[in-house]
Amino acid sequence: MISIIIPVYNQAKSLDRCLRSIKNQKYDNYEIIVVNDGSTDNFYEIIEKHKSIFTYKLEYISQDNAGPQAARNAGAKRARGEFIIFCDADVELYPEMLKIMKGALRHHPEAGFVYSSFRWRGKKFRSYPYSEERLKQMPYINTTSLMWRDFFPGFDEKIKKFQDWDLWLTMMEGGHKGFWIDVELYKIHAGSTMSSWLPKVAYKILPFWPSVKRYNSAQKVIKEKHHLQ
């Protein structure tokens, strides 16, 4: 079984779309754990609507606002599946996604997780084949990846940016490699808080921009933690 963990903070509209895309999956051996991280919108209205659709497959947890890492960890602790995948509320899964990812993980026993290409703001992000050397240099694997639950080390709740990069580096250090599926399997909708992507031109032209400075500072934290400098 796959445990799908969705952290949510005031994203009721996005959550509705995300849950509908899960309902359309061609693989149905899953459970959904939605973690309400202190939302003040119509979260419960959306949950009640979908509970009648998913019945026993959907459960939710509510907690005071503690951030996405804490919400993901809370969901992982409740997971019963052999596999887990973290899916933010602004993600729309394509119908074949779970089926393809699970098949790839089963057929590549050397891998601890699998990841795919995806679309964001109209652009396809193909990612790259798994490489430890590349991973040490840059964040290129999105959080929405399927992994063996027993290999999940937990998110470091002190890390505020590049949580995905930190996770994959930690798994690499534990001996768990990734496998890339060169197929676009999901879409991240505009307005998302995906922080790992900044136009390369920003570095070349305006390295003093506050956003670039914050990016570089966050990158330094990860590199120091994993002794990459």
Summarize the entry for a quick read.
This protein has 229 residues and is of the alpha/beta class. The chain has helices at residues 12-23, 43-54, 68-78, 97-107, 132-137, 163-173, 200-205, 210-225, and strands at residues 2-8, 30-37, 58-63, 83-86, 91-93, 111-120, 123-125, 146-148, 177-188.
Uncertain residue segments: 194-209
Q: Structural class given helices, strands, pairing?
A: alpha/beta
Largest sheet: 9 strands, mixed
CATH topology: Spore Coat Polysaccharide Biosynthesis Protein SpsA, Chain A
What can you see in these coordinates?
With 229 residues, this protein is of the alpha/beta class. The protein has one domain (2-197): Spore Coat Polysaccharide Biosynthesis Protein SpsA, Chain A (Alpha-Beta Complex), CATH 3.90.550.10. The chain contains 8 helices and 9 strands. Strands 1, 2, 3, 4, 5, 6, 7, 8 and 9 form a 9-stranded mixed sheet that branches. Helix 1 runs parallel beside helix 2. The relative contact order is 0.16.
